[in-house]
Amino acid sequence: MGNKKEVFDSDIIKVRLAKEEYAGISEEQVKQIYLEETGQKLDAKVKVYKSSDYIKSDSGFAGSIIHVYNLEKGINEAYTITRGTEDAKDWEYNVFGLFGGIDQKQYDAAKKFHTKVLKKIEKESSVKNSNLKIDEYGMGHSLGGNLIQTLNITGTKFKKVTAINDAPPNAYQLAMLDKDFQFYLKNKLGIGFNFKNKLIKTDPQKLKKLAEDYYAKKGSNIHHITAKDDMLFWASKIRGFIDLGTRGQTIETNPKFSGLDGTLGSVTNLNDKDLATLQLYMDKFQGEYQTGGLKGFVYAATGIDSLKKAWKNYQKNLKDMISPVDIRASATKKKLTIDFGIGKLPFNVLDIDLSVQLKNPVRSLTKLYTGSLIMADQVIKTVVKTATLVGILSKILKPLLDTPNDRISTRIDAISSKFDTINKQIEHLKKIKDQLAKSGLVGTPNLSLMSDLTSEMTKIVLEFSELMADIGVTLDEVIDIIKEVLSGVSAHGLEELLNGLSGSKKSYKGSDLILTGDIGKTKVKVNISSALRIYKKGLELYDEKSTLLTRMQARYEEEYPDYYNHHVKGLLKEILLMETNPGAYRSLVPYSDIRVTAISVEEKIDPMNHNIANTFTTIFEELATEIETGRKFIAKIRSSIEKIFQKDEMVSQMFKNI
User: Fold this and answer.
1) Are 238 and 270 in contact (CB under 8 A)?
2) Fewest CB atoms within 10 Å of the CB: 55, 105, 218, 522?
């Protein structure tokens, strides 16, 4: 039976199962989907194992394993479903997260869940006592498609994997997960020390070829179901992603849509050097990216948060080193004057006008000198790093977000212009810093230069803070534009994919199957899933009512006719006893000299009140009529639908096998 057909040998069934996984798939839903797509009852037991019941993980991984078995018929199959993202809300992680490399915690959680459940299935008595091997299959949508493929090519023994609108495996990601592949790359590329950085700088096409050759055999069992306009299929043209298995023809989900390359821009036009630089950044700040998204990554990668903290400490140190001598209120001036005893040095860092002196002139001056130089270095480095990263992001985002209103391009140009101004200030700051550093080496630091340095830093930090607020707003707009485009396309969703897979007379709405039939010349759409649910529920309901009516009738017989007849029999028995044994009733006669030789009872027992019987009979008849009417109504639903689809025998089979 090695070549036997798998139970769920249908792309549509697999896509529907993957879709149900998001809602929390159940054994009943599995059977219902099979019935609707094949017309046959699933002649096997079904058990669903959910990841939340078997592993505790903060990785975000979720999935299920469906065990389908009928050992007498040679069925023993396990389907692992790794959940992904069904809509556009997680596009940011889908594209950027996978570009940088998927979180290994998700991979580890998926592997642990699969191993744990398969061991449990193998220990089940029915499976354990059978020589029938478990045939394993995998399926996953979106990020789940990436996970299931990665599990497959790194050791999990699936007979077949179905990747649905998937994020393809990433060569950089695999090089970190799979030590054998890493060893292979080190030999082929001749790199060892600082492996990941050198790998990212390797020719991406060469790396892609090496990865696809290495995993070709392991990935030959992967079957892709892909929408033409899917976001991840579009994004997978970026460096690092590899293509394994068979893809076949992509599915058209929206004929009116020209494609993401036309709406967002072509990813093939992106500069590989910029992408490699961004990838190196993302590798270092993967944790910050996963918790804070694109903005969290930018802030961590540029060190802006560190700069804010350092600047606050720098200002605090300035205040701590001085003591007020005399306070002169001023509405126009905002200058701090520090008297060192050898001259006055203004610092534009406070909001009041003070005449102050250093608490400990020699120590404070040294600390102030050193601290100012360190602070200037941090300001320069943060601004330069931010300008570099924002420049790279703008080169990548601008061509991709060339929308008709061009609002992103305008914002990016404005930010670049502001950076040009700040960069000029940074050059001026560097000169002052270098001059100040030299003055400290030859003697007492130049107080005027120290004042200029602090004033220039203050100006830059304030303008830089405003610029970062603009960058934050721009990133929010970038996210909104992507969501807007993707929500219009909706190709990534499974409902659209199901409709693309189906013919003209078959479609899907939510989790339901819709069939189109004919009444004369009129086209009629029927929700078959809903009709089957109504039919099944109706049959169950009226069977339940019929059983309840039978129990009510039996109880009536017990409580009324049977109870009445029981008492009548008891009374007649007592009368017979009195007539056949009159002496036994002597005590009933008050006189002692009288003998009882005979008793004759003239009995007249009224029948049970006919009103009681009539009332219950009426109730029972009405209930029986209601049940019969309900059964006819349910049967009429079935016959009406079968009439619409009289050319489709499978519809009739669905009702028959419900």
Assistant:
1) yes
2) 522
Cα atoms in the Cβ-side hemisphere of radius 13 Å centred on 183:
3
Q: How confident is the model at residue 530 (pLDDT cuts 50, 70, 90)?
A: very high
Handedness of CA 176, 179, 181, 182 (dihedral sign): positive
Residue-wise burial string across 216-226, b where 16 or more C-beta atoms lie within 10 A, e elsewhere: eeebebbbbbb
CA distances from 119 to 112, 123, 204, 292, 337 (A): 11, 6, 39, 37, 76
Distance CA 221, CA 61 (A): 23
pTM: 0.74
CA nearest to 64, candidates 102, 34, 29: 29
Domain ranges of the chain: 37-263, 285-489, 526-656
Q: What are the structure tokens assigned to 250, written together? A: 């992509």
> In Å, how far from its chain's centre is CA 308?
34
Residue with tokens 């860092």: 349
User: With 0-12 CB in 10 A as exposed, 13-18 as middle and 19+ as buried, what is 183?
Assistant: exposed
Q: For strand 336-339 and strand 354-358, is the pairing parallel, antiparallel, or unpaired? A: parallel
Other beta carbons within 10 angstroms of residue 86's beta carbon come to 20
Per-residue buried b or exposed e for 276-287, using 16+ beta carbons within 10 Å of the residue's own CB: bbbbebbbebbe
Q: What does the alpha-carbon distance between residue 431 and residue 425 come to, in Å, rounded to a whole number?
A: 10
Look-up of token digits 């798939």: 25
Per residue in 59-82, pLDDT (tens digit) is 778 999 999 999 889 999 999 999
Token pair 């970026």: residue: 238
Q: How far is it, in rounded angstroms, from Cα 416 to Cα 395?
A: 11
Q: Which residue from 535, 526, 540, 533 is spatially nearest to 646, judged by alpha carbons?
A: 526
Report phi then psi at 336, rounded to 5: -100, 125
Say if residues 67 and 268 touch (Cβ distance below 8 Å): no
Write the single-letter amino acid at 113: F
Query: Structure tokens of 188?
Result: 């082929």
What is d(CA 403, CA 263) in angstroms, rounded to the nearest whole number? 7
pLDDT in tens, 215-271: 999 999 999 998 887 777 776 777 888 999 998 778 887 766 666 666 666 666 677
Nearest to 36 by CA among 9, 64, 16, 66: 16
Which one-letter amino acid corresponds to residue 486? L
Rounded to whole angstroms, the Cα distance separating 66 from 45 reads 10
pLDDT at residue 96, as a whole number: 57
Cα separation values, 541 from 414, 627, 631, 633, 658, Å: 68, 9, 10, 13, 14
The HSE-up count of residue 156 (CA atoms within 13 Å, CB side) is 29
> Burial letters for 550-577: b for 16+ Cβ neighbours within 10 Å, e otherwise?
eeebeebeeeeeeebeeeeeeeeeebee
